[in-house]
Design brief:
819 residues, Glycosyltransferase, seven-stranded antiparallel sheet, hydrolase, Glycoside hydrolase family 95 protein, GH95_cat
Length: 819
């Protein structure tokens, strides 16, 4: 994994957005660090109250218990399932051509019936991510004094989970970290009185495992078989090493007893045989042993120092204040309840934003073996029992997990995602050939780490071949933010090219219109009514058209930048000319399908046709005002429909889309809805009971990440060659500041505002940059580049055209007339 770290350092030198800048603005900022802290005055009673730590591979949920502390352990490669070369039944070009002929003849129902019988994949060994189980620390006290001064917290600035309390005259203090440099989870506890620590260390595992002791180690070995999700599963070994200052450690069958210690440190690691054939000589058991042995050479203070030095600079790149933290003395869960009761708390929105960045750092580092799955590896043991599993959903959820990465100045957190896309491309080339008789590569709605790129077990949600294109679009987004030509040439373009080749080979000309169409495929995961039946598959649902344009444009721009593949470029130009237009339906909204079908489920949570509005920019208020109005109409119709499926990810979508429509108050209303109804006490987002068959609230990662991306979109936009500062600033956030957000074009941006108006701003070019800057509030400003006042006049849209060299700094200062 060191080679990936070295690769990342080289990419940093090539100009990724890594610089956090200082703006001369103190309004709305706090200096105590309380804005970066989740804290509680009692232990967690359930998983949804516990607090997460993670190092990109290992994760734990920390409960902060007094009588019994519990760390719910996870490892990202702990998966059931295995590779299945027969995952996709062969179908082929001849059958595909026949299906299309039926559709063009108006026999859409017959085509759906054939596709439903013959195009779906199999899931005999699909698998799911699984939680390991609990590491338990049962405290034994020498007295029965009541607990006082209890506090547990998660400090986002240093990624340390702390618990402190008094019992009699003894103060107990514990800290938990997930260290990336040392590759372990570390839990440390001290007592203010010597030899006051007595405890038993045990495991309550959820996997098939044998537990035994080896000296001061608690060892468990087993496998991740999970029959509910098919055959197969990784093998694993986990270890807990105990280090005690003073006192004794006594092994006792399947637990360790610690008596009369003054300080105790637990080090834990889990290793699996996931893809062990990739690494010559890799022994997961030996790796687990040696990792703990190396970490055990260091004191807790040294481990903590190395952890903070590694993590803190990443988190510190961005600061966000949406007002002073007036209620910093109120526990986070109480603030959450007050907001649910109708209160206001802009600082809680800022905390939620930073929490999402923390979660991404915790879950996806350059050396992570896998990207963030549906729940990431903070697995509550609920999603894996659902039909949708804790897998990779490529029809929005996996994509949303990474929406905050670039704008949140965490571009390197995308690297595991890009490695995963590369793996999908290998397996997806077989699926493209077997299913469609096409070149290139594709993937569909659901995926796993075993190379599943086939259609799901039902075409109703699984026949979505442009899921691969949506995933591939992230490769181009990374380039838009960094302008890293080397990355484009070596990583992004080869994968984009393979997906573009699939689309060019897969698409067919409509005999009646001449348009290039995909299909039969679905608009995830919705359906329509046709001749009295509910159907899902059709030719060229709008989402396919949007994604085809994105991939063709990204691939074409890449050929121009890299000066390569002129014949492919010509094919892409011709294909772009033959895409059908976006259409407005009879209901005034953006059509979801090529034909204006009646929606079978008007309350459906998916709005895939509005990818054109966000995260892409094929619809904008400036360039396509009629379509922007239609997009708003689509949103309003969904929200107004009784029993709209309001989930964490669909509500996060609303924040993003309303921000693009410049509707600050509607966007903020959705921020409130996400925070109050679709998160829990630990501020983790949930898919609520009743949605997609969920019998209870289930944590899903995407609401945190995509919700934070929406908050960023309210404060900074850069999607159409134009940087907009504060484009959707709600009244509630009338004062505040941010530092270090990234914009497309290699720009790092700071801003400070007062009474809803920009007071000052700063942009720094990490690479040569050419862009427009729009100051949306209409105030009067002075612009300086590298300290020199500029005489640039804005155009009719109040935009300034700027050309910067690497290292140039643009300062924006408001006039007194703005106040």
């Amino acid at each position: 994994m060191e080679h990936r770290k070295r690769k990342w350092l080289a990419q940093v030198a090539a100009g990724f957005c890594l610089v956090t800048l200082t703006v001369s603005c103190t309004q709305g900022e706090t200096k105590t660090g309380d804005e970066f802290r989740l804290w509680y005055d009692r232990p967690a009673n359930e998983w949804m109250e516990s607090l997460p730590v993670g190092n990109g591979r290992l994760g734990a949920m920390v409960y902060g218990g007094v009588d019994e502390e519990k760390l719910a352990l996870n490892e990202s490669t702990l998966w059931g399932g295995e590779y299945d070369e027969t995952q996709q039944r062969p179908f082929g070009r001849e059958k595909l051509d026949h299906l299309r002929k039926l559709v063009f003849e108006g026999k859409l129902a017959e085509a759906n019936d054939i596709a439903g019988r013959e195009m779906n994949g199999t899931s005999r060994s699909f698998g799911t991510h699984l939680p390991m189980g609990d590491l338990k620390i049962r405290f034994i006290y020498e007295d029965s004094h009541p607990v006082t001064d209890y506090c547990r917290e998660l400090d986002l600035q240093d990624a340390v989970c702390r618990t402190t309390y008094r019992r009699g005259d003894v103060t107990y203090s514990s800290q938990c970290i997930a260290s990336n440099p040392d590759e372990v989870i570390v839990w440390n506890v001290t007592a203010s009185r010597p030899e006051a620590l007595n405890m038993d260390i045990s495991l309550a595992l959820l996997r098939n495992a044998e537990i035994h002791t080896e000296g001061n180690d608690l060892v468990y070995t087993g496998d991740a078989r999970f029959p509910l999700q098919g055959e197969g599963g990784v093998k694993f070994e986990g270890r807990v090493t105990v280090k005690a200052k003073d006192g004794v450690v006594e092994p006792a069958d399947t637990l360790l007893r610690i008596r009369k210690a003054t300080e105790v440190t637990l080090l834990t690691d889990i290793r699996t045989d996931f893809r062990n054939t990739t690494f010559a000589g890799y022994d997961y058991s030996e790796k687990c042993r040696t990792t703990l042995a190396e970490a055990g050479k260091h004191s807790f203070k040294e481990l903590l120092k190395r952890h903070v030095a590694d993590y803190a600079p990443l988190f510190a790149r961005v600061n966000l204040s949406l007002g002073t933290v007036d209620n910093k003395d109120i526990p986070t869960d109480e603030r959450w309840r007050q907001l649910r009761a109708g209160g206001t708390d802009p600082a809680l929105s800022a905390l939620f934003f930073q929490y999402a960045r923390y979660l991404l750092i915790a879950s996806s580092r350059p050396d992570s073996p896998l990207p963030v799955a549906l729940q990431g590896f903070f697995n509550d043991n609920l999603a894996c029992y659902m039909g949708w599993t804790n897998d990779y959903h490529l029809d929005i959820n996996t994509e949303q997990n990474y929406w905050i990465a670039n704008v949140g100045n965490l571009a390197e957190c995308n690297l595991p995602l890009f490695d995963y896309i590369r793996d999908l491309s290998v397996h997806g080339s077989k699926t493209a050939r077997d299913l469609y008789g096409c070149q290139g590569w594709t993937a569909h709605t659901t995926a796993n780490p075993w190379g599943y790129t086939a259609v799901s077990t039902s075409i109703a949600w699984g026949l979505f071949p442009t899921a691969s294109s949506w995933m591939a679009s992230h490769l181009w987004t990374q380039y838009e933010y960094t302008l890293d030509r080397d990355y484009l040439a070596k990583t992004a373009y080869p994968l984009l090219k393979g997906n573009a080749r699939f689309l060019l080979d897969y698409m067919v000309e409509d005999p009646s219109t001449g348009y290039l169409l995909t299909g039969p495929s679905i608009s995830p995961e919705n359906s329509f009514r046709f001749e009295g039946r509910e159907l899902g598959a059709s030719m060229m649902p709008t989402v396919d058209r949007v994604l085809a344009q994105e991939i063709f444009n990204a691939c074409l721009r890449s050929t121009e930048i890299l000066d390569t593949d002129p014949l492919l470029a010509d094919s892409l130009r011709q294909a772009l000319k033959k895409l059908p237009p976006l259409r407005i339906g009879a209901n005034g909204g953006v059509q979801e399908w090529m034909e204006d079908y009646e929606e079978a489920h008007p309350n459906h949570r998916h709005t895939s046709h509005l990818l054109s509005l966000y995260p892409f920019s094929q619809i904008t208020p400036e360039e396509t005002p009629e379509l922007a109005t239609a997009a708003r109409r689509t949103i309003e119709l969904r929200l107004a429909t009784p029993d709209w499926e309001d989930t964490e990810w669909s509500r996060a979508n609303m924040i993003c889309m309303y921000a693009r429509l410049r509707d600050a108050e509607a966007a903020n209303a959705s921020v409130h809805q996400l925070l109050t109804e679709l998160t829990r006490e630990n501020l983790l987002s949930i898919s609520p009971a009743g949605i997609a068959g969920a019998p209870y609230d289930i944590f899903i990662f995407d609401g945190n990440a995509a919700g934070a991306a929406g908050i960023a979109e309210m404060l900074l936009q850069s999607h159409d060659d134009c940087i907009r500062l504060l484009p959707a600033l709600p009244i509630e956030w009338k004062e505040g500041s941010y530092k270090g957000l990234c914009a497309r074009g290699g720009l790092v941006v700071d801003a400070c505002w007062k009474e809803g108006r920009l007071e000052s701003g700063l942009l720094r070019a990490t690479v040569p940059a050419d862009f427009r800057l729009q100051l949306v509030d209409g105030g009067r400003y002075t612009l300086r580049i590298n300290g020199e006042v500029q005489t640039i006049r804005p155009d009719v849209s109040n935009c300034f055209r700027l050309s910067l060299k690497k290292g140039d700094v643009v300062e924006i200062a408001g006039s007194n007339d703005n106040k």
